Amino acid sequence: MSLEQIVFYAFSALLVLSATAVITVRNPVHAALFLVLTFFTCAAVWLLLEAEFLAIVLVLVYVGAVMVLFLFVVMMLDINYVPLREGFMRHLPLGIAVAVVVVLEMALVVGPRYFGLEAVPVPPPHDAQYSNTTELGSVLYTDYFYPFQIAGAVLVLAIVAAIALTLRRRPDNKSIDPGLQMRVTRDQRVRLVKMKAESPVDRE
Description:
Strand content: under 5%
Number of helices: 10
Mean pLDDT: 79
Largest sheet: none
Number of strands: 0
Low-confidence stretches: none
């Protein structure tokens, strides 16, 4: 067994253990930190598989943005999770049944018939000038150009729908209408008020 295979199996075992800890620990902050470790380990496995672009995107987007947001939300809300865990044992058989079905489906799809080590030959190593980012971009913008654009349009529509659903009109909000600001004249901007000067007698 080569050094690369040893590192691959070590990172894969750490990936499985950290992913298991995400769903088994009781503290949500610890679960989020274990998820960060899972993402980092998965990025290391992708680097071993020469998928540098996906590894960098995983670290920058998920670890650098999404997980930081999750940590802030979990730590700032301070939710009492004790009532949420009361029905855990009641729903445990259903959860185990769903997990078994998912494992069987993945075993049928990702099995040795299609992804076995003997059926699929190991690709030769690439030279130093090879860039999987260029290869990924050429595939996305040639063979999958229309599905890629449709997926982008669906994501933009989802963002607009989320903003529209969460937008609430509050009467106590203080907002400024730019149109009214542009229509204001010079006399309306400044108002001169004349007041009598105060004397020491008036102050007393």
